[in-house]
Write a structure and sequence with these properties.
With 112 residues, the protein is an all-alpha fold. The chain has a domain at 5-71: lambda repressor-like DNA-binding domains (434 Repressor (Amino-terminal Domain)). The chain is built from five helices and no strands. Helix 2 crosses helix 4. The chain starts with a helix and ends in a 22-residue tail after the last helix. The mean pLDDT is 87.
């Protein structure tokens, strides 16, 4: 069954509140730690409302920012070719190796 926007907001607010309480923090403490104004923090917990910036600040302060990437997972590839193309597009290009010349050789110094 699909949830309404209001139901999802309430659920999000409860989750934020539960996470804060589990860490033993008051609303004032987490507000100061996150940089989210106290009034906004209370609204975030109570109605699940706030800006995306405030949600990210809350996630960082509550140490669950890694889970934000799970909100919009990448769809599964339709084929092996598509999967390989995605991997190639996101791969970090390898830097070519430099050939170091003249290193490692011991050359005598001769004073003239």
């Amino acid at each position: 069954m699909l949830k309404t926007v209001e139901e999802l907001l309430q659920e999000l607010g409860r989750t934020v509140r539960d996470r804060r309480i589990a860490q033993g923090l008051s609303q004032l403490e987490i507000s100061e730690r996150s940089g989210v104004p106290l009034r906004t923090w209370k609204r975030l917990e109570g109605q699940g409302e706030g800006s995306v910036r405030h949600l990210i600040q809350a996630a960082i302060a509550l140490r669950c920012e890694d889970n934000l990437a799970l909100l919009f997972p990448t769809p599964a590839a339709a084929s092996m070719d598509e999967l390989l193309a995605r991997q190639a597009a996101t791969a970090t290009p390898k830097r070519p190796m430099r050939v170091l010349r003249g290193r490692g050789r011991i050359t005598p110094r001769v004073k003239l």
